[in-house]
DNA sequence: TTCAAATATGTCCATATGGAGATACGATTC
DNA sequence: GAATCGTATCTCCATATGGACATATTTGAA
C-alpha cells in the first residue's frame, strides 16, 4: 500500500500518509479553498483562514507532504500554490459511487412515479 | 457550522462530525467499497475487510452517524446498506477543483506543444 | 428454558492530533 | 553588523483515535 510501517498497535494512519487524511481537517480544506484563487504567502493564508501563522505553516507542511500544495521561495516569503492533480485519488474514489448515487436517484424517481400512478388509479 | 462544541482545547473535530473525517480511515473506505455490491451482514463485512467483528461494528457505527450507511434488522442480523447520497459534500468539494485540475492539464498540454514547436524550430 | 448465534458496547492502551505559544532561522533593510 | 520581517520548528497539553478483547444484549433454535 504505502511506505510507513503498520504496527498493529498504531492508533491510525498518519495524517501525512494520504490525501484522504489530509483533507479530513477542516482548516486544511479551507486553506486549499483559499489557494483556489492562486499562489499565496503563508501570512496571507494564515490571515485568510484566521489561523495563527505557526499552525498555518504546519497545515501547509502536511498538505505539501501529500503533494496537494507546492512551495516556491521568494526572498523571505514562501509562496504556496495548489497542486490539484493530487486530489485525483480522492476524485477517483468518489467517482466509483457516482453510479450508485444515480441508481439510487433513479429508484427514487421510479418510486415517485409509482406513487403518482397509484394516486391516479385509486383516487383515495 | 454544526452542533458539537468547539472548545479551543479540543484536539480536532470528532470523526463523526462529517463525511470527510469518516472516509479518512482506510478501513471505513474499504467497508464502503464492499457495500457497493449491495446490502451486507456485519459478519460478512467483517470477513470481507479482514477485521474483527467488534471493529467492523464500530466503523459501521461511525459510517452510520454521518449517514453513509443505513441499517436494517433481519432477525438477529443487521443488514447494512450504502447511502451514497451522503457522499455529496465530498463530491461537491472535490468538484470545485475539477476546473483547477483541467486548467492545469491544459497548461501542461500548452507547455508540451510549445516544447515540440521549439524543438521543430531550432533543431538542437 | 437453555443454548448458541449475531451484533453492539465497554475498557484499556499506545499513539497521533491539533491548538497555543515561544523561539530559532534565513533573508532584507537600515 | 543590528534590527526586523516572514516562516518554520519545537515543546507542552488535552483529547480523539483505532486496535484488542471481554462482555452485554438481542434473537432464533434445540
Automatic annotation (TrEMBL), chains A, B:
Name recorded for this polypeptide: ArsR family transcriptional regulator
GO molecular function: DNA binding; DNA-binding transcription factor activity
Database matches in InterPro entries: ArsR-like_HTH (IPR011991), HTH_ArsR_DNA-bd_dom (IPR001845), HTH_MetalResp_TranReg (IPR051081), WH-like_DNA-bd_sf (IPR036388), WH_DNA-bd_sf (IPR036390)
Record organism: Humibacillus xanthopallidus
PANTHER family, sorted: TRANSCRIPTIONAL REGULATOR, ARSR FAMILY, TRANSCRIPTIONAL REPRESSOR SDPR
Domain HTH arsR-type residues, every copy: 8-102
Keyword field: DNA-binding, Transcription, Transcription regulation
